[in-house]
Amino acid sequence: MSDTSTINSQGQLLTSDGVPLKDSLRKSLRRTKIRSFLLIIVPLLFLLIMFVVPIGTLLTKSVDDTSINTVFPKTFAQYELWEDKSILPSEEMFAAVINDIRITHKMENSEGKNIGKNLLGKAGTRMTYEFSGWRSLLLKTVKEATKVDKKSKEVIKPYVLEAPYKEKMIKRDKRWGKVEFWQSMGAMKDPYTMGYYLNAVDLRYDANKNIIQKNEYLKIYKTIWMRTLQVSLIVTLACLFLAYPVAYLLATLPMRASNLLMICVLMPFWTSLLVRIVAWMIMLQQNGVVNDTLLTILPCFEGALNFPFIGETFIDLCFGEEDRLPMMYNFTGTIIVMTQVLLPFMILPLYSVMKGVPPSYMKAAQNLGATPTWAFIKVYMPQTVPGIGAGCILVFIVAIGYYISPELVGGKDGLMIGNFVAREMQQTLNWGLAAAMGALLLTAVLALYWAYDRLVGLNNLKMG
Amino acid sequence: MNKIISKTLIAGAISTAMLAGAAQAAVTMVSWGGGYSASQQKAYIDTYSSGEVNLISYNGGLGEVRAQVESGNVQWDIVDVLPSQARTGCDEGLFEELDRSIFLPAPDGTPMDEDLMVDVPNDCVVPQIWWSYVPFHKADTFSGDQPSTIQDFFDVEKFPGKRGIHTWANAIVEMALYADGVAIADIYDVLDTQAGQDRAFAKLDTIKDHVVFWSSGAKPLDLVNSGEVSMSLAYNGRIGGAILNDGADYVTVWDGQVLEEEWLVLMNGAPNRAAALHFLVHASSTQAQADQAKWINYGPMRPSALPLMEANEPWFNTGVNIMEHMPNTDEHMKGGILANPDWWADNGQAVNDRYAAWMAN
Questions:
Q1: B93 — contact with chain A (CB < 8 Å)?
Q2: Domain with CATH 1.10.3720.10 in chain A
Q3: Do B323 and B240 belong to one domain?
């Protein structure tokens, strides 16, 4: 070493080409860093584009209320000045509404295309979420406030509505005289809102932006959140209970038998979800295979029997037409179908962990005097904890966001939060609410992950 | 060398095929699937010679439409939409407002917009059909008295068995009020009040324990066939399709049916705009509207199509009369409720929330 490196005037070590050793090292380190960064850049970009950006957008959507604020800036400014919110606002606020409508109506995008009409249309949709009837009231007023002379295409006059506005607007549509419409603006006046999150847990803003409970008959989401958790928990436990023995068999049976068993596990796993759900429908419905079988095989006895000591008693031991079990299109149906669908997610991690447990440990424990049961509980089971953890987390996380099975077999009391996210996305177009529910779901999953890390430790997780 | 040549040939063939595809891009039309899409295929697309139209299915709602327009990546050209979505979508600029003068007038010269059974709600819509939510049952379900009114649907004492209803509030709240004795003309006035909505839900409460919910159009037929329910609401075309094509032994109770409009719209920024417009003109013509009734019992939106069908009965493709299966004949309209899409655009969110809460609790 010493013959290739020298020392320069400042006392730094130099390499053979005269560069200080420190710089040379740094350079080569940086090169390695860049090279390894280049190696991960593809997965990193993938993660960024497919994961971080969409979730970020989702989170912004759940609080974003800028669209309505670009339409009604003057009105919302007036709202702040409105003192007693139990009586109608002043003429200034009525005027501000018309003003805002007229300005928005002429708004153009960067290419000079009119977007004002559509902004007002969207505003109508948005406002109806806060109070029913806003849409038609707003669109009707837009028409009246921006009416143009058809012949001259004159934009300014003659408007149907001219100042002073208050009385005329109420005369044109009595809803403008209802203070509830005006009060509902309170929830929309800020560009960022927690309103969607409140909605997702059955709360709402009042006129002064205090958080209050929703009307009793509109409360729905708390029930659904609780049910989502309940279904996911029951399904996870049911899966664990059913999967553990299967995985144990898979791991311990001789190759030939376990291969066959593995195929039995994997075949349904590879079969289309819809096929499996429809198969369950045929099995479990009111006149389905299971009920028909029960009806045929269960003994039927109806009549009076004379028991010693008790005397004559009427006994109805009959499984008749009216006793057919409701197992489909309800909570039970959802649980059964989801358990079957998610079972492989539990079996596979359990199997892979059990496969790695040396059989000699059990033998050793029994050699040292443990009964087979005791050895299984004390020696075998603790070693499968990583598999149990992984399986439970996998099943629970997949279950909590489930949508298609509850939609098809859930009926009235088997629907989960995923079904409501879909409804807001597709039907009511309330994407803010859908995003808020999605974000809450994400939080629940992250919280679970964190709790698992604290309780069991993530390095104890073995996915397979 | 051979390998290189064959590779070049393949590449050439592929690129030629792609070029050809680009030059003759097919119009994409999105509809609901099942017998309904089949009728559109037969009546509009198979009779259209000026270009290719691909018919694909969707589950309704404006979610995908809005996503396509807002991301600037519009894939669809024509969408078949429900009345309230035709309105919201047009307001929001998801659909294009069309020049009304390009559409064909009725044979007697009436312009299309005046040849409609309702006032045209906006300039985006192109007429399609009338369809309805209507109760039905198997002919052998009940012995003795047969259900004949909407009250019977809500009467589980007189007509035992479960009831199939859909998972959203449209139509069912109107039916509930009508069954509770509200005159058809007053239904939406009553629904406009809190007390009126309470009344509708109180009526729904009476069948709550006897309800099985469905959310896809084919489901009510399964429910009735398997005996899961004794009566179900369904889209009238699904019931009619089973009766007319498969000889199903169903009875439709027309009293209390709720009729809904159906429109075609052009996506804003449609990739094949010109070809799609050309096709829309064809698909909305009086003849095409009448032709559709050869394949499904949904009523044409343009009244000018009715005389064409009546005069040429049996009109249905299997050689049976179609008029008695149409929802919008005078006979069936006696107890028919015309849905009010504007009311639903205003109140749909709140009423559907309440309905969902009613379902869940």
A1: yes
A2: 222-286+326-460
A3: no
Q: What is the mean pLDDT of residues A59-63?
A: 92
pLDDT at A63: 93
Same-domain status, B223 and B300: no
Q: What is the pLDDT of residues A264-285, one digit of tens each?
A: 999 988 999 999 999 999 998 8
- Taking residue A268's Cβ as centre, other Cβ atoms within 10 Å add up to 15
User: Does A329 contact chain B (CB < 8 Å)?
Assistant: yes
Number of domains in chain B: 2
Quick one: what percent of chain A has pLDDT higher than 90?
44
Residues B277 and B162 both lie in one domain:
no
> Is CATH 1.10.3720.10 correct for A222-286+326-460?
yes
Closest-CA distance, A285 to chain B, in angstroms, reads 7
| Positions of chain B with pLDDT lower than 50, given as ranges | 1, 15-23
Q: Do residue B249 and residue B312 come from a single domain?
A: no
CB B216 within 8 A of CB B36: no
User: What are the C-alpha distances in Å from B157 to residues A210, A432, B162, B207, B235?
Assistant: 47, 44, 11, 10, 25
Q: Quick one: which of A7, A155, A406 has its CA closest to B359?
A: A406
What CATH number does residue B227 fall under? 3.40.190.10
B123 touches chain A (CB under 8 A): no
Which residues of A fall within a CB distance of 8 Å from B61? 425-427, 429
- Using an 8 Å CB-CB cutoff, list chain B residues near A129: 349
Q: Give A200's contacts in chain B (Cβ within 8 Å).
A: none
One DSSP character per residue, B5-25 reads HHHHHHHHHHHHHHHHHHHTP
B11 within a domain of the structure (yes/no): no
| C-beta atoms of B215 and A118 within 8 A | no
Residue A240, token pair as written in the block:
């664990």
pLDDT at A300 over 80: no
Q: What is the ipTM of this complex?
A: 0.81
